[in-house]
Amino acid sequence: MHRKPLASRWQPYRWQPLEVLVEPALADTAARCLRDDPADLRWLFAGFELRLYSDEAEGYFLNVDTGAPCWFVMWRMEELDGVEVAVPRTVTLSYNEAARLMDGGEQVDTVPAPALIAERLREFVQAYYRPEPKRKRRKPSFEGGAGVAEMAKAERAGHGS
């Protein structure tokens, strides 16, 4: 996570995810500050596990279909070592899951997914995503009938005709 200074009198900085690393060697690493500078504060958080679920295939499809697949990182402000830091809580590739998190009031930002992750996500989508068949909707009938005649009569009565 990266704290970026802003030229604003209302908000001195903005937190955002800088990168999602796919490094198994970092899996057991505790959260740690990588750079502590007023102009550039960076923290590393590890231990996130990514699992793809077939019932979430539509969300993955919506991500891949954009042409620029990305990670969705949900984070919250917390205090670590006496410093207020943006701490990532969830990392997903599902557009739908990210939307649900945002609907719940969570902060979610995106980070571009590397080509290898994007390709594997495309393969998963091809294997598991089946779009819902489009259903024909029956158009309402406006050709008359007793119900329509009743509505017209009530409408005229309401307007003093």
Automatic annotation (TrEMBL):
Q: Which InterPro entries match?
A: DUF3305 (IPR021736)
Q: Where is this region: Disordered?
A: 133-161
Among the Pfam families in the record, one is DUF3305
Q: Where is the composition biased (Basic and acidic residues)?
A: 152-161
Official protein name in the record? DUF3305 domain-containing protein
